[in-house]
Amino acid sequence: MDLKYGLKSTKYLAFSIIILLQPTISLLVDTRFENSEVDENSGLSLSSSDMETSIYDLDEMEEDAWTMVQKNGKQFTLNGQPFYVNGFNTYWLMVFAADQSTRGKVTEVFQQASAVGLSVCRTWAFNDGQWRALQKSPSIYDEDVFKALDFVVSEAKKYKIRLVLSLVNNWEAYGGKSQYVKWGKAAGLNLTSDDDFFSHPTLKSYYKAHVMTVLNRVNTITNITYKDDPTIFAWELINEPRCESDPSGDKLQGWIEEMAVFVKSIDPKHLVEIGLEGFYGPSTPNKVQYNPNTYSQQVGTDFIRNHQVLGVDFASVHIYPDSWISQSITDAHIEFTESWIQSHIDDAENYLGMPVVFAEFGVSTKDPGYNSTYRDAVISTVYKTLLNSTKKGGSGGGSLLWQVFPEGTDYMDDGYAIVLSKSPSTSNIISLHSKRLNIFNALCSWKCRWGCKKKHHTSENLYHDDL
To answer: How far apart are CA 310 and CA 316, in angstroms?
Structure first.
């Protein structure tokens, strides 16, 4: 991996000195890209001179730039300027950090991800009642595991990576809603379904207590309270919620409405998202045609309705045609991926007025017919479709690849793991997308070393439409 073109490359603003000399912004864009090439299949390509040209070092800016990512309308912002995300998932970081023999893998994955420009990582801030549990029973925590989460947060900042922290699982892995139900039954509650997690007052109180504990946690390494730490990009209410016992969606909707506001009441500074897969539900019968199958509209989720909730800042969508449509890979999977992304970007713009992040996507090596070329084609499709939105300043806020692993963690692989050092073609695609997004972020920032913040009146259109 080429470190100089990774996340650290943001030390250099890849503009020619001509930026400071040209009287109009249009000349800036023409000059900036005169040696670039355009690839019809994937968008803007960069010449080596583009990335190596710099007018000043941004070290002095980096120190004061580590601030909260925020949302302004349909875009993420950082220091008042648009911020587009190229990120990844590695869910097991806390568990690995809890054991000194595996803690180094946390550092490795951040180091390798930052080298290809990945800037946001989604990971679990829960492990309920399982092996190496964070929450051993309601409101009872293992301090050593909490210190492991502290390490993950502190280590992420070292590599300029922000975190999406998920607060509970819909599935049984790492405890999830079923573990909350088990705790409730042990306390004598009359519970009949795992979906009681979404409606029973006691189970909701267990979840709220966990939220309060995590958000108010003071990091033992940095001494920064989680709810005040800019390293955290966003809180995720629950990973892939489904409530099949109520296909109308009312039960899950009520839970989302309650919990989004509750999280914001504790931490109004950070962004909040739900963790949805993106299925369309009963409130939008004209949209269900975009679902991968008929079953997905009966699982109690409702993409547009769920996101029209006070306290939810951006939309989340997952992309798994190999589990939703058919395991055997075909070109139809790529066609679905493109239409699925575009549909949700359109909805985020037209109905929700918020950014959308495609928070999980990938291809399993276990799929019949799998090959790395196909995986690269899927990843490129996701990036290309998002870049089309980015160019227009649209709602396509970014994507998080499922999932990036360091070497020596094969026993955790669910089939989707990408070891960057062993996947040069995939690494190159990721790195190039990072460079493209960094250009948009840099063009949009339009900052000079003297701190000039005056915005040119044509900047909004030119930044996004003319590239």
So the answer is: 15
d(CA 458, CA 466): 11
3-state secondary structure of 137: strand
**Can you give the pTM of this predicted structure?**
0.84
Residue 149 dihedral angles phi and psi, to the nearest 5°: -65, -40
Residues noted as catalytic: 240, 360
Q: Is the peptide bond before 81 cis (omega within 30 degrees of 0)?
A: no
pLDDT above 90 for 266: yes
C-alpha to C-alpha distances, 50 to 33, 324, 442, nearest whole angstrom = 8, 41, 13
Q: Which residues pair with 82 in a beta bridge?
A: 77
Token pair for 192: 């009949």
Between 15 and 150, residue with greater pLDDT:
150
**Backbone dihedral region for residue 337 (phi beyond 0: left; psi -120 to 50: alpha; all else: beta):** alpha
% residues pLDDT > 70 (the chain): 81
CA angle 244, 254, 127 (to 5 degrees): 70
**Strand 271-273 with 75-78, pairing:** unpaired
Residue 184 sits at φ, ψ, to 5 deg, of -65, -45
Hey, is 329 helix, strand or coil? coil
Give, rounded to a whole angstrom, the gap between the first and last alpha carbons of the chain: 27
Are the C-beta atoms of residues 305 and 284 closer than 8 Å to each other? Answer: yes
Contact 48, 82 (CB under 8 A): no
The tokens of 433 are what?
């997308």
**Mean pLDDT across the chain, nearest whole number?**
85
- pLDDT tens-digit series, residues 343-375: 999 999 999 999 999 999 999 999 999 999 999
Do residues 382 and 432 make contact, with C-beta atoms less than 8 angstroms apart? no
